[in-house]
Design a protein that fits this description.
heterodimer, A: 322 residues, alpha/beta, Rossmann fold, 7-stranded mixed beta sheet, 12 strands, B: alpha/beta, 5-stranded parallel beta sheet
């Protein structure tokens, strides 16, 4: 792992989907076995740019079949990615992902775009707060909620090399705050500590769009004289249990933050680890067992309290519970 | 005249060779039936109906059509066979054991703790099982994916996939059908075990297939070969030979079969799974062995 934190809360001018396309183009150029399967959504993530390699398959609006096709391609020796919106890449094709791919030890890589509130104007029908929950339930699967361009680029390459284990990675399609400098490298199963001191009053464990919110919360809390640790736990499964327990031991309180239903997401992963290994008070920032709805992402983040302000409230609350 | 005589003689030889081949395949099918019954019978219960209905087609595939190497189950050049109707696993296990992929005795561990022979076929457990199936409708999609994968690799492997007529209730079967036709997967051949029964009863009563499965595959752009008797080894052999030379589209062979064919307690009942008494098992195995002996005797008679 070698990361460079930028953390200036500035939007990347590039669309995050282009990180995936760029990484895949480089992979396909060198490796004839790399394949992408899409579900009539190439135009949404610019994978038409991969058509020239002859291994970018459009399976139409038929996600269940597409997932089975991805499993068959993998069995025939291909390193296979399959893309749909996160809601369909999980709910719509889950039995296929589970049995044809994961149970069969075929390391299909599933890309679910528009995670959580990023589905914005597509609304509640398209807003997955449960996609990772489904994939967390698959034995030995890898579940990733990346924060930005640099991370998507690096992990696309790392996941492509994984054999036998099913992977699920969320993908924000459009602009996202740049957290890391290009060239940063990450390790599956290892969280990233972004802020740390020897007098942290709590640890904020976040992923995806909530990493930047956590960094904003860090700065505001500092103004109030409260120092918190900030961890990017993009790797929900395998989670970095060692880092979670270390944070609990050293700070005595944990706040989680996710763009997902926290009753079956990052919050529950962290709570499980801590309840088994080092119980401390935990407060969860995320969607609390609600359905999605339509609107701009800013509105939705306010509506579901996926904000730095909510993280701050939870930090103050969790410190009182210590 | 001499040339014409030679041609007639050659045609006669080819005819005799094919007749012998068909006799061999009939014998193989009867062997598969005996061993399938012994495999399931060793436990006392299982999916007899759908295992026995495809025994003839499995005999033709593994005895006369597929390119395989029992010493090297993962040989890159092999043809693939996928049981999308995964519950016919015991028939596959018997077939593969008889072809020498592993010892027959191993199949008698069916469904016991830590076995490599589970009810439904599993690529991680059994040699030469190419894909994992069991959740119905899925095997045909992954078979199509494998067929596409072989094409992308420039290889000429063929993929044979069995689906059941009950399984064809699943929408995914038709998603796969449209995909295979769209991508012109002529290396994909689907054998439809049209045995007229599903778990809860006759297909026509539980969930009927409109104008028929052949008409459906035809509408999806497949080449369709309908066999009036899907348990007729010679007809299946001819159909598969034909299917293997079709270009530009996948082929579906509709096998009108008898569920439980050759298992005296199951044949004609339409039963999806069976748990007969020990006596019934003995009787069924004895009957299947008698059928095999009769085929062998007929072969010897023809050879004399």
């Amino acid at each position: 792992m070698s990361i460079t934190l930028i953390g200036k809360h500035e939007k990347d001018k590039r669309a995050c989907r282009d990180a995936y396309v760029q990484a895949m183009a480089e992979l396909m150029e060198k490796d004839q076995t790399v394949v992408h399967v899409d579900t009539d959504l190439k135009s949404c993530i610019n994978t038409k740019k991969l058509d020239k390699y002859g291994r970018c398959i459009n399976a139409g609006i038929a996600e269940a079949n597409a997932m089975g096709v991805a499993a068959g391609l993998t069995a025939a020796g291909k390193k296979t990615w399959i893309h749909s919106f996160g809601c369909f890449a999980s709910r719509r094709a889950f039995d296929q992902a589970f049995m044809s791919a994961a149970y069969a030890k075929l390391g299909v890589k599933v890309l679910g775009s528009d995670p959580g509130v990023c589905a914005a104007y597509n609304g509640g029908t398209h807003m997955p707060f449960e996609d990772c929950a489904l994939y967390l339930s698959v034995p030995d699967a890898i579940v990733i909620d990346p924060a930005d361009y640099a991370m998507v680029y690096d992990l696309t390459k790392k996941l492509t090399a994984v054999e036998e284990r099913l992977s699920y990675m969320r993908l924000i399609r459009k602009g996202v705050v740049q957290v890391y400098a290009d060239g940063s490298e990450f390790e599956i199963g290892k969280g990233v500590t972004l802020k740390e001191s020897d007098h942290d009053a709590a640890a904020v464990i976040a992923s995806g769009i909530m990493v930047d919110e956590a960094l904003k919360a860090y700065e505001k809390l500092l103004e109030d004289g409260i120092t918190v640790r900030v961890i990017d736990m993009f790797t929900w499964k395998p989670a970095d249990e060692e880092l979670i327990v270390k944070a609990a031991k050293e700070t005595g309180a944990v706040v989680t933050a996710e763009n997902h239903n926290c009753t079956c997401g990052l919050g529950s992963v962290v709570a499980r680890v801590l309840s088994e290994q080092y119980p401390v008070p935990v407060e969860m920032t995320g969607v609390h067992d609600q359905f999605g709805q339509v609107g701009a992402q800013d509105f939705l983040q306010e509506a579901y309290k996926l904000t730095a302000e909510e993280i701050i409230r939870n930090v103050k609350k969790v410190i009182e519970r210590k | 005249m001499l040339t014409k005589d030679r041609k007639i003689r050659q045609a006669g030889v080819i005819f005799m060779q094919k007749a012998e081949k068909i006799q061999d395949l009939r014998e193989f099918a009867a062997e598969i039936r005996v061993e399938t019954l012994k495999t399931i019978g060793s436990l006392g219960f299982g999916h007899v109906g759908g295992s026995m209905s495809i025994a003839d087609a499995m005999a033709v595939l593994y005895g006369g059509i597929m390119r395989i190497d029992p010493k090297n189950p993962r040989w890159e050049g092999r043809d693939w066979c996928v049981l999308s109707k995964g519950h016919a696993g015991p028939c596959a296990y018997a077939t593969l054991a008889l072809k020498g992929f592993y010892d027959l005795e191993l199949t008698r561990t069916l469904n016991r703790p830590n076995t490599n022979f589970p009810s439904h076929t599993d690529r991680t457990k059994t040699p030469d099982v190419d894909l994992t199936t069991g959740s119905l409708g899925q095997g045909i999609s992954s078979a199509a994916g494998a067929a596409l994968g072989h094409k992308l690799s420039g290889r000429d492997n063929r993929v044979f996939v069995f689906i059941g007529d009950g399984e064809a209730d699943e929408g995914q079967v038709w998603e796969a059908a449209q995909f295979a036709a769209h991508y012109k997967l002529d290396n994909l051949i689907c054998l439809v075990d049209d045995n007229k029964n599903q778990l809860d009863g006759p297909v026509d009563e539980i969930m009927s297939h409109g104008k028929g499965l052949g008409a459906k595959f035809d509408a999806f752009g497949w080449r369709v070969i309908e066999l009036a008797d899907g348990n007729d080894v010679e007809a299946v052999y001819d159909a598969l030979q034909e299917a293997c030379i079709v270009k530009g589209q996948p082929t579906a062979i509709i096998l009108n079969t008898v569920k439980g064919k050759g298992a005296v307690f199951a044949e004609g009942t339409g039963a999806h799974s069976s748990q007969p008494s020990a006596e019934q098992w003995e009787e069924a195995i004895a009957a299947a062995e008698a059928e095999l002996a009769a085929i062998r005797a007929a072969k010897r008679g023809a050879g004399e």
